[in-house]
Amino acid sequence: MTITPAGTEVAYTITYLEMTEAPAPAPALPEDVRLERCEQPPVWFFLSLYDAVGRMYEWVDKFNEAPEAVQAFVQHPDVVLYVAYRHGWPAGFFQLDWREPGVCDLAYFGLVPEAIGGGIGGTLLRSAIATGWSRDDVMKMTVNTCTLDHPRALDLYKRVGFQPVRTEDHTRVLIRDRDPSQFPA
To answer: In this structure, are residues 138 and 18 in contact, taking their beta carbons and an 8 Å threshold?
Structure first.
């Protein structure tokens, strides 16, 4: 594949998805995966996970926000962060946002590159969905992904029950060289 150098303006499409009924219960995570809810996580911890998962996919928006805004989001009582640990290190994470009444937004979900292909992505996503629906007032769960994310992200969300509801086309200037051939399989 061709490397797109930093500084290049690229087009991308955001797909917004939703789920209006709770799915079947989630299967258990593998025995060697520990899922832990973070209590009042420091901003640096959230940003380190965000960068570890999203670096290749141009996840940069949170780095461009004011530190106070990121802290208000990360430490809001209706926003929770869960980390999946495998072999003693973070293999992935998800963040749920219940700030909108009746809605749980899967704000962030992903695996670090070294964990992709290790058999936990689908199960971790189903755990995130089950956790999202765990509050009594949830009537809908939402998520979005874009064409800059891992090429299998959209299919994975659809496979677990999310339905696309709309798309938006955008452009952005890359801050890093982009080499899709380096994306984990």
So the answer is: no
Q: In this structure, are residues 6 and 175 in contact, taking their beta carbons and an 8 Å threshold?
A: yes
For the domain made up of 9-182, the CATH class stated in words is alpha beta
Q: Could you report the per-residue pLDDT of 117-130, keeping only the tens digit for each?
A: 899 999 999 999 99
Task: Please state whether the predicted TM-score (pTM) of the whole model is above 0.90.
Answer: yes
- pLDDT tens digit string along 126-145? 999 999 999 999 999 999 99
Q: Per DSSP, what are the bridge partners of residue 141?
A: 19, 104
CA–CA gap between residue 107 and residue 145 (Å, rounded): 10
Where residue 176 falls (left for φ over 0; alpha for ψ -120 to 50; beta otherwise) is: beta
- Name the residue ranges covered by the structural domains of the chain: 9-182
* Closest among 68, 95, 79, 85 to 29, alpha carbons compared: 85
Q: What is the predicted pLDDT for the residue at 1?
A: 58
